[in-house]
Design brief:
alpha/beta
Length: 116
């Protein structure tokens, strides 16, 4: 099962450690705003994603709790997903890409046959 860890202002040291270790670690950061409906929908998708099989850890960062963490990767809007893998950083800013990132593998789109 995947892990979804919500970071608060009490976890500031962990957040700073994650940024320092981005060249040697694998993790996912999900930036969101508690007042944005798109962020709330993406957060619900992330929670469903976390219930799937896998060993990924996704750290959830709120714009209210840790606003300075948005500048670490140059994030200017929410929602946003940052995937870090051994120094390789991928940033997903567009909502469809965030939605696709958290899409459950068992919910692949159905294919329909076209009428002839």
């Amino acid at each position: 099962m995947r892990t979804l860890k919500v970071l608060t202002h009490k976890d500031e040291r962990l957040a700073t450690k994650l940024i320092r270790e981005k060249k040697s670690s694998d993790y996912i950061l999900f930036y969101h705003s508690e007042w944005d409906r798109w962020s709330l929908q993406a957060l619900a998708r992330a929670q469903a994603w976390a219930e799937e099989e896998g060993d990924e850890v996704c750290y959830v960062i709120s714009s209210w709790e840790l606003p300075h963490m948005f500048s670490a990767f140059g994030i200017t809007s929410a929602p946003c997903v940052v995937e870090v893998s051994q120094g390789d950083v991928k940033v997903f800013l567009e909502y469809p890409k965030i939605y696709d990132f958290f899409t459950l593998t068992d919910q692949a789109p159905e294919t329909q046959e076209l009428p002839q």
